[in-house]
Amino acid sequence: MATYIALMKLTEQGIKNIKNAPQRVEAARKGIEATGGKMTGFFATMGEYDYVAIIEGTSDEGAMTLMLGLGALGNVRTTTLRAFTEKEFAAMVKKLP
To answer: What is the pLDDT of residues 36-91, one digit of tens each?
Structure first.
């Protein structure tokens, strides 16, 4: 499975409804699992981003669909990074000419 790091910033709507945030995280977890993926980590953070999630997904298309759906709810804006394990990275470097 592919790994994705989702960086999230609360919108005005999201901060107004912050008391519902734990339920929204759980709903997102269930949505990811319904597509065959898994949220392996979720963190509330201080700094530029309010949340960081580590997600394992079946495809880039599936991850994009999930992030679009999450954004459409209006509580967060996302920046998603495709992440490669150390082993995957080493294999890519090995292929360099």
So the answer is: 999 999 999 999 999 999 999 999 999 999 999 999 999 999 999 999 999 999 99
Place of tokens 């107004």: 16
User: Per CATH, the architecture of 2-94 is what?
Assistant: 2-Layer Sandwich (3.30)
User: What span, in angstroms and rounded, lies between the C-alpha atoms of 75 and 95?
Assistant: 41
DSSP structural state of residue 67: H
The tokens describing 7, both together, are 């960086």
Which sequence spans correspond to the domains of the chain? 2-94
Strand-pair category, 51-57 with 2-10: antiparallel
